[in-house]
Design a protein that fits this description.
Mean pLDDT: 92
Oligomer: single chain
Structural class: alpha+beta
Radius of gyration: 21 Å
Strand order of the largest sheet: 9-10-11-12
Number of helices: 18
Distance between the termini: 49 Å
Strand content: 15-25%
Largest sheet: 4 strands, antiparallel
Length: 367
């Protein structure tokens, strides 16, 4: 057996750009992009839409239709964090990972009395939703009218609990695409491709988990077992067992000897690095290229890590990627007289890269 090839940080960064579909976007449907990535970080909904659009040759075209037709939904499938998921896999995500998220919020749920209010909150929400999809604020108001609130945080945790048990999800885009309307899962996602049990300690790996690990490594690799376990909020032992069942990923190593996994064709793509792959990319906040890994050291220098999430407050800034490395953050000018790109590089950018950043800015999907 030949030794695993060793990749430098630049090679890893370029390979991840290729794996994630950022280097050469194709004509995939929006739901296919989400499915290929496994799930898409979506704390910031407009940013998540841009993330999907950047990975498609068609950009934002057809995005609203995919949501409004019920092919993509948003929920809290893992880590207590909002993600886009393919609608047909909603129940599978929640069946496997929902109990883990619910367990992590047990103390707060008990403090707020969520469990004893949950049945009434579900009935009240479903009654309100008989009139069609509603904004979250409308359900909050209905709960308030029913006397179910009264304490800060109770509305959020009721909403979270009803998403985790697959009663509700977020479906159609609101008018300004900054939020989604809430819908009943039973009506909006009528079928269930798979409803696996959660993963008990020491049990075999459910096929759905193997599928998610495959998608993660093929779309995010080169990545480690630890990265995949953190991303999916699953035990490392479960992920490691799933990797052992895959025949379409290969092992590589970084300069420090750490084992990483990726699709073999990604290595071929990285070896044929072209100017577009190695060029400048502008990514929205919370993009999978940044948030999809627990260890970002391969693409981000440690001394700059705090600059993409100032104050360690969990709010990530849009990032500039050049040559497979995160080299700065960016934003839009707020001056109406001179709208445009505002770059905040970690170090001086060359004139060539600044021009490339302007072109990338002009290519950003228009929602």
């Amino acid at each position: 057996m030949s030794a695993a090839p060793v990749l430098g940080d630049r090679e890893i960064g370029l390979a991840r750009l290729a794996a994630q579909g950022l280097a050469r976007p194709d004509d995939a449907a929006p739901e296919d992009v989400v499915r290929a990535l496994g799930a898409v970080q979506a704390q910031d909904l407009p940013g998540a839409l841009v993330s999907v659009g950047l990975r498609r040759g068609a950009g934002a075209a057809g995005l609203r239709e995919a949501f409004d037709a019920g092919r993509i939904v948003r929920t809290w499938p893992m880590r207590g964090t909002l993600h886009l998921v393919p609608a047909e896999e909603l129940r599978a995500w929640l069946a496997v990972l929902g109990p883990r998220t619910a367990s992590s919020t047990t103390a707060r749920r008990r403090e707020l009395g969520i469990d004893e209010r949950l049945d009434a909150a579900r009935e009240t929400a479903l009654t309100a939703l008989r009139h069609g999809p509603q904004p979250r604020e409308r359900l909050h108001a209905a709960w308030d009218e029913a006397g179910l609130l009264g304490a800060p945080g109770r509305a959020y945790h009721l909403m979270l609990a009803l998403h985790l048990d697959a009663s509700l999800c977020m479906g159609p885009l609101a008018g300004n695409v900054r939020d989604q309307l809430v819908v009943p899962v039973e009506d909006w996602v009528p079928g269930a491709a798979e409803e696996p049990a959660h993963v008990p300690a020491g049990a075999g790996v459910p096929p759905v988990v193997v599928r998610w690990v495959r998608r993660y490594l093929r779309s995010h690799g080169p990545a480690s077992v630890a990265d995949a376990a953190r991303w999916a909020a699953l035990p490392r032992s479960t992920v490691r067992a799933a990797v052992g069942m895959l025949d379409d990923v290969v092992a590589v190593r970084d300069r420090g000897g750490q084992e990483l996994w990726c699709a073999p064709e990604v290595l071929e793509d990285a070896a044929r690095t072209d100017r577009r792959t190695a060029g400048v990319h502008l990514l929205p906040p919370f993009d999978e290229y940044v948030l999809g890994y627990g260890d970002r050291s391969h693409v981000l220098a440690g001394q700059h890590a705090a600059r993409i999430v100032p104050g360690a407050n969990g709010v990530f800034k849009p990032t500039v990627v050049a040559g497979g490395r995160i080299v700065g953050t960016w934003g839009r000018s707020r001056r109406a007289s001179s709208p445009g790109l505002v770059l905040e590089p970690f170090e001086e950018l060359s004139a060539t890269r600044r021009r490339a950043a302007e072109r990338a800015f002009a290519r950003l999907p228009v929602l």
